[in-house]
Amino acid sequence: MARLTRERILEAARAQLGRYGPRKMSLADVARALGVSKAALYHHFPGGKHEILGAVLDAEGDRILARMRAAAEAASDPRERFRGAVLARLHHLAWLREVLGIGKEVGEEIRALCEVQERRFAAGERALFEAILEDGQRRGIFRDASRERLARGVQNALRDLETTLVFAEDGETEATVDELFDVLFYGIVRPEAGGREP
């Protein structure tokens, strides 16, 4: 039998989280999947289920941020960098949904847990968005405005759409993201119609 490590525990916990959701998942489920006792889990995670769930979410957040950064770095235009980062996040979440067999109800439960747990991920994502905005402002593509406020606005829009987009039919995710960015980048008011000053 392979040695019990934090990484093995987190992988088993991730699978059990996808199967049962955060409320129904138990340490016994994780221990059974690994063929160990619950006491062995406490050796690595003294905080029990709460600590394991936090570590699973942090590890997954790190994976998502790495994919988002790689996608953003693959493009030169700040608009495409934004689009790539957002699609990388959504595609990773959709991949997790498929690999772990996560149903929509469990997905919504996990999303609610993430909102409580996601400070580290949110800060990393916001820093990435702010860097893209800074590049776009420096190049005269994006208007001068608070990068933090704009980044938070994009995060809020994504958070509201995330569950819908992760469980969308193939092709709907990218089309919806394109529509979102069309509104974010170009607005819905014709320039000749006027509007409020930025």
Explain what the structure shows.
The structure is a single chain. By secondary structure, the chain is mainly alpha-helical. The chain has a domain at 54-185: Tetracycline Repressor, domain 2. The chain is built from nine helices and no strands. Helix 4 (48-73) packs parallel to helix 7.
Radius of gyration: 20 Å
- How many angstroms separate the termini? 62 Å
Q: Which assembly state applies to the chains in this document?
A: single chain
CATH structural fold name of the domain at 54-185? Tetracycline Repressor, domain 2
Looking at CATH, the homologous superfamily of the domain at 54-185 is Tetracycline Repressor, domain 2
Topology pattern, helix = H, strand = E: HHHHHHHHH
CATH class of the domain at 54-185: Mainly Alpha
How much of the sequence lies in strands comes to under 5%
- Going by CATH, the architecture of the domain at 54-185 would be Orthogonal Bundle
Q: How many β-strand runs?
A: 0
Mean pLDDT: 87
Q: How many helices in DSSP terms?
A: 9
Biggest sheet architecture:
none
Structural class: mainly alpha
**What is the percent of helical residues?**
over 70%
Unreliable stretches, pLDDT < 50, 5 or more residues? none
* Global shape: elongated
What is the topology?
Elements lengths: L5 H19 L2 H8 L3 H7 L3 H26 L4 H23 L3 H14 L1 H20 L8 H20 L5 H15 L12
Helix pairs in contact: 1-2, 1-4, 1-6, 4-5, 4-7, 5-7, 5-8, 5-9, 7-8
